[in-house]
Amino acid sequence: MTQYASAKIGLILVNLNPAYRAAEIKYALTKVGCKALVFVHSFKSSRYLDMLQSLVPEIGRSQSGELHSEAMPELRLLICTALECHEGVVRFQDVAENGLRAIREGFNWPRGLKSSDPINIQYTSGTTGPPKAATLSHRGLLNSAWFTGQVCGTLEGDAICVPLPLFHIFGMLTGNLLAMLRGAKIVHPGDAFDADSVLSAVEDERCTSLYGTPTMFVSELACLEQRPRDLSSLRTGIIAGAVVPMELLRRVMTEMNMTGVVNGYGMTETSSAIMVTSPTDTAERRVTTVGRVMPHIEAKIVDPAGTTVKIGEAGEILVRGYSTMLGYWGDPETTSKTIDSEGWLRTGDLGMFDEGGYGRIVGRIKDMIIRGGENISCSEIEEFLLLHPAIESACVVGVPDERYGEELCACLKLKAGSHVKEQEVQEFCREKISHYKIPRYVRFVDDFPLTTSGKVQKFLLAKSSAHLLGLINPDQ
Length: 476
Prior knowledge:
Layout: H1 2-9, E1 13-15, H2 22-32, E2 36-39, E3 42-43, E4 46-47, H3 48-55, E5 77-80, E6 90-91, H4 92-104, E7 118-124, E8 132-137, H5 138-152, E9 159-161, H6 169-182, E10 185-187, H7 195-205, E11 209-212, H8 214-226, E12 236-239, H9 246-255, E13 262-267, E14 272-276, H10 283-288, E15 292-293, E16 297-302, E17 315-321, E18 327-328, H11 332-338, E19 345-353, E20 359-364, E21 368-371, E22 374-377, H12 378-385, E23 391-401, E24 405-414, H13 422-429, E25 441-444, H14 458-468
Parallel strand pairs: 1-7, 2-5, 5-6, 9-10, 9-11, 11-12, 12-13, 24-25
Antiparallel strand pairs: 3-4, 7-8, 8-18, 13-14, 14-15, 16-17, 17-19, 19-20, 21-22, 23-24
């Protein structure tokens, strides 16, 4: 409701990850100057009202009901979905009832909204530093959703099961917007991902399509082995958000009746999809490529000098078109480094095209880990770990993981005379950063492998870590 309402009246919707802790919430709200916050009272272990009161002790003190905070001066209104009343907080139910009354009395709808206006801000973990605020337009979101539905063969009357988080571009756009535009029913199995609930929803609602990350499909297949379900209604779906192993895609097609399932490649800064396979593509195409470039989007592969390479050669993927973000909010310098004067957006990913125009992703330039479809900035976690009094330097790398694709491994050099255990480092992170950013593995090292210029060779560190942890064969 908030997603559609904000677009209707020209507000910019800012999506927040429910795993955020207090400091992350404060950063996200102040970075873009949010005027209002819609929130649930609690989710899992998070108590949002308690977090907000720790950030804004002025809640409930204003006579007018409008918030006046010294720490967050632009925040004026708190709206909670809980039915009970809290001092200084407006109920979502009351907003809805007041809105209906205003419409009956002749609400003055905004005029002059343009397709190029910013309508959504998504926080994306960048290659360095804290999350960046990717600003997306009406045109980018709607066209990306429409053409993704066209390529995937979404039909009016389809039922799409979307167990994805709605703060992410995949769930919000490829889920909500695509279903609305193509006339399909959207099914949300629950507040958080649970494989058994997903399969129950598909069976009960006779879903024709199922979305998810590779990690989600792995869990669903394991659940199916324990308790078979009637998935005969399924025809297609989308598996994306991280590298899709060939064997996994084959199993999804055969064991889940999703013969038309597609995979693809995209990013938040391009309003989701850049390349997508089609249900009409051969099975081989769908397990060896990420498909062809989306309709009306341009893409090219360039070498480090910016020269377009030949077909079959690898280089960085550059994209431009309607889906390109308007920029990073309040950060023109980073925006100019990402989007050049001709509108080409640097993805930071390495890929190649074959003779048929199908793309393959062969690596990443970015210093980022993709864990279960979640983009995680290594440097953000490294900077946090340096707050620990015993840690002298930190390097976070990705290591292989069967469930999530990649897991975080923190390689730490301790200060002279300091002693700390792995569990103590993880406990230090708990409640201070999001759970998915807490390193699964912690290694203590004496030195890091360095280049001649003194930079850490993270690829060597990642490989040695995977070896020592027994995650890859010694001869790999």
